[in-house]
Amino acid sequence: MELPIVMSHKARITAKPTAPVNASSRNLLDHLESAVLWVSPTLELLYVNPAAEMLLERSLNRLKGESLKSICPGNSELVQMLEKASDTELSVTRRNYRLKINSNQAIKVNLTVNSISQVGIVVEMQRIDRARDIDNEFKLQKEQEAIRGLIRGLAHEIKNPLGGIRGAAQLLQSELADQPELLEYTDVLIKETDRLKSLIDQMSGPRRQPQKQRVNIHEISERVRKLLAAEAPDSIRIRFVYDPSAPEVVADKDQLIQATLNLARNALESLEETGGDLVISTSVVRKFTIGNTLHPLAVSLKIEDNGPGIPESLQPQIFFPMVTGKATGTGLGLPTSRSLVDAQGGIIQFKSRPGHTEFEILLPAAPQDHE
Question: Is the separation of the CB atoms in 35 and 48 below 8 Å?
Answer without folding.
Answer: yes
